[in-house]
Amino acid sequence: AGQGYATLAVDLLSRLGGSASFATPDDAVKAFQNVKDDDVVRDLNSSYDYLNKNAAVKKDDIAVMGFCWGGQRSFLYATANPKLKAAVVFYGTPPSDDQLAQIQCPVLGNYGEKDARVTSTVAATIEKMKSLGKSYDPKIYPDAPHAFINDTNSAAYNEAAAKEAWPRVLAFFKKNLG
Fold this sequence. Notes:
The chain is α/β, with parallel strands linked by helices. Helices cover 41% and strands 12% of the residues. The protein has helices at 25-31, 37-53, 69-80, 97-100, 116-119, 122-132, 159-176, and strands at residues 63-67, 86-90, 107-112, 136-141.
């Protein structure tokens, strides 16, 4: 928002009472296991429609961005909404190959080198997206863990990676959003 973009942070735990309804952050994280992909897509479609009707938002000029579990869902949503202009994924694994074929927008990926579970999927995703003729621009940040841009988590935050990733995201938005 500070860069001039209208933003909407969607609480994808709303169907389960919302993030604030859980006793601890760990309980909220566990609750994500009970959120169905179809519900995520429905909620993000509603969010897309809301933004698209908002006078402060340039019509049909909408992107999605997510972190961790939300990064995976950002990638998923790119497969479900052909009107989406761009998708940014922070440390999220890709959807299935069949779903990747549905992507119509460019995807920017940001991954930490030390996040082997997620980063191990990047090479195959590059090849699959290339074979499908899809735009996928991933970057693996050296010495960075999962959640490297989260400056509220001193165990994960990697200042060098965060300072490189954020301008990259803004440049991607500038290129793909009017």
